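Students often ask why we bother encoding 3D structure as a string. The short answer is that it lets us treat folding as translation between two languages. Here is a chain of 150 residues written in the first language.
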Amino acid sequence: MADELSRLKPVPGSQTARTRIGRGQGSGLGKTAGRGTKGQQARAGYTRRFGFEGGQMPLQRRLPKVGFRNYNKTDYEILNVSKLSGLPAGSTVDADSLKAAGIISRKGRDGVKLLGGGELTVKLVVRLAKVSSSARSKIEAAGGSVEDLA
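And here it is in the second language, the structure alphabet:
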């Protein structure tokens, strides 16, 4: 161990010289520069494409393909009328106001659908993409009105 800073040396083997490829026979990596002999990988500019396994059938082609994604599927955020009871009477209910009030976390690609679960006691004006018939009757029974957007 060094007893002075001026005598500090790196641990033997911790520092190795950079390998200088393609600098002649004396470098230890002359002639083919460590690339073997001939072939695609010996050429300049060679890059292996993603997923290539040397001609073996790639993993993404060996695995079974499962599932189906229906891109025509409707995507509504579902909501019951019982969640609207906490809103002030006479207010207008739409997707933006529900999100601002924290009642829904997302609007859904096709909007919000209101279902008839629970009871409603406050009078509201509802403007949503879809409203079920039971929800419509509960809103109208409470003195409110429903305007369909879709």
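Translate back mentally: The two ends are 82 Å apart (CA to CA). Keep this in mind for the problem set.
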